[in-house]
User: Fold this.
Amino acid sequence: MLAVAVVVVASLLPARELPSLGVGDKWEHFLGYAVLAAGAVQLYRRRLSWAFMGVVLVLLGIGLEYVQGAMGLGRVADRGDALANTLGVVVGLATALTPLRDALLWIDRRL
Assistant:
């Protein structure tokens, strides 16, 4: 939930208040949503839950883009950002097909 809150706050802050991460804007969107979706894979066991969270994250990304355009704080709605968010969700969910699927369990066993 903290990661989702960070994405929401970062998406709604005026652009001038955000630090530069050294990568392009689209990569920031892609990586942020990939991490959120990969987190869903870690937290939920069932594929239906992953699909539901994937839809929720895509809708969150689209909704935040819409809100950015409506707020008038120097941010604009960008379809490219929404697409980068969506691709990030797809890649994050695809971690379910890799050994990364159980990364948190592996880390937990090591601690």
User: Anything to note?
Assistant: The helical segments are 2-12, 25-43, 47-71, 79-94, 103-110. The two ends are 23 Å apart (CA to CA). The mean pLDDT is 90. The chain is about 70% helix and 0% strand.
